[in-house]
Amino acid sequence: MPAEAPAITDIRPLVDCTLGDAVRQRASDVHVEPAADGYEIRFRIDGVLQTAQKLDSAAGRAFVTRVMVMARLLTYRLDVPQEGRLTAEVPELPAVELRLAVMPTIHGLRAAIRMPAEQVQAAVLDDLHLPKRVLDGLLKFAAADSGMLILTGPAGSGKTTTIYALLRHIVNSRSGVSIIALEDPVERNLPGVTQIEVSPFGQLTYEKALRSILRQDPQILVLGEIRDSATASLAVQAALSGHRLITTLHAATAGGAIARLIEMGIEPYQITSSLLAVVSQRLARRKNPDGGYRGRIPLAEYVEMDQPLRSAILKGGDSQSWQRIYGEQGGYQSFGDVAKDVLRQGITDEAELDRVMGNISA
Fold first, then answer.
1. pTM listed for this prediction
2. Which end of the chain has less Cβ packing within 10 Å, N or C?
3. What pLDDT was estimated at residue 8?
4. How high is the pLDDT of residue 7?
5. Distance (Å, rounded) from C-alpha 258 to C-alpha 313?
6. What is the DSSP letter of 275?
7. 47 has pLDDT over 80
8. Are 310 and 272 found together in one domain?
9. DSSP assignment letter at 216
């Protein structure tokens, strides 16, 4: 049932209580969404948005204004997007650091609050419960001296979580390694890693930051995402010049990631010489004995650049033909293979697998 709209004078305890509920329910995000008849507050839990409460328009506006004040944003600017950070005092819990983004709509300001990553994301590789081949591949990359590792998947598929866990492993296992990460935005603090927040539309873009960072003598570079041909070219050059580079790319499969790089103007011989491996990833909700869902499990596949795949890329082709080649790699498990395993173990169900897998080929 929709919550009764509180008086605006009571908005502070409502905000505190709502954020506290989000923390306790392990939500990754809180959305405060305006509509013609009021506001709806929704929590994203295990990747799915769920309605938490409804407010009338006055209370909804007051809620957004309150979190803007907490983030020291300009409450009188209702016509431009704004971003900021705030600290929330959650009843009976430690204070939490949150990110806030507000956007003007025809019905008022919409607010998206990102909850602390550490409350819903595992910090250690072993705790991610990745398929064995994927985990072994990541450990192999951690021990390598050069090469590029690409993680692919849609937004919310756990790519950043995997990267953070991998970096923590490298920091803990190899002392004296210089690691620099370019992120948009920085999700959580990583001791032992120099983290730089970039802005794709500001002065410090991925391309500008990467050009400068290459002169800072890093051994491992983390590039939050390859978004354009200039950044792709710099990333490949970094990997070719003896750096280890970790990055993400929006593609459905490893073959799709290779195709994207070629579309960005990267020569096939540069890809085959620089790319060490591709990890493609999705997250599926775990099935509870009571019939509901709680927590998530990664569905992932690992493709390494071996000689047959290298030859196939140099000869041309497309993502489907490359998929047939790397499908014959020793120990390779496709998304379909991994899905069958978790289904057989009763970890999740077919409905959830259909939701997250879409039309990915088995």
1. 0.86
2. N
3. 53
4. 47
5. 9
6. E
7. yes
8. yes
9. S
What is the C-alpha to C-alpha distance for residues 180 and 223, in angstroms, rounded to an integer? 9
The answer on pLDDT for 4 being more than 60 is no
Domain-embedded: residue 250: yes
Mean pLDDT of 323-346: 94
Q: Which two tokens stand for residue 214?
A: 């290459």
Give the per-residue pLDDT at 121: 60
Residue 15: predicted pLDDT: 94
DSSP structure class, residue 281: E
Chain Cα centroid distance, residue 92: 29
- Choose among 167, 128, 359, 136: nearest CA to 253: 359
Q: Tell me, rounded to whole angstroms, the distance of Cα 195 from its chain centroid.
A: 16
Given a cut of 50, is residue 2 above it in pLDDT?
Answer: no
**pLDDT tier at 301, thresholds 50, 70, 90:** very high
- Domain edge (last residue) among 85, 117, 149: 117
Give the model's pLDDT for residue 360.
63
For 303-320, write each residue's pLDDT tens digit: 999 999 999 999 999 999
**Calpha distance 167→78 (Å, rounded):** 39
Return the closest-CA partner of residue 287 out of 338, 352, 337.
352
Q: How many other C-beta atoms can be found within 10 angstroms of the C-beta atom of residue 121?
A: 18
Residues 201 and 337 in one domain: yes
Same domain, 339 and 217: yes
Do residues 170 and 45 share a domain? no
DSSP state string for 28-71 = SEEEEEEETTEEEEEEEETTEEEEEEEE-HHHHHHHHHHHHHHT
Could you tell me if 170 and 96 lie in one domain? no
The CATH number that applies at residue 80 is 3.30.450.90
The residue range of the domain holding 12 is 8-117
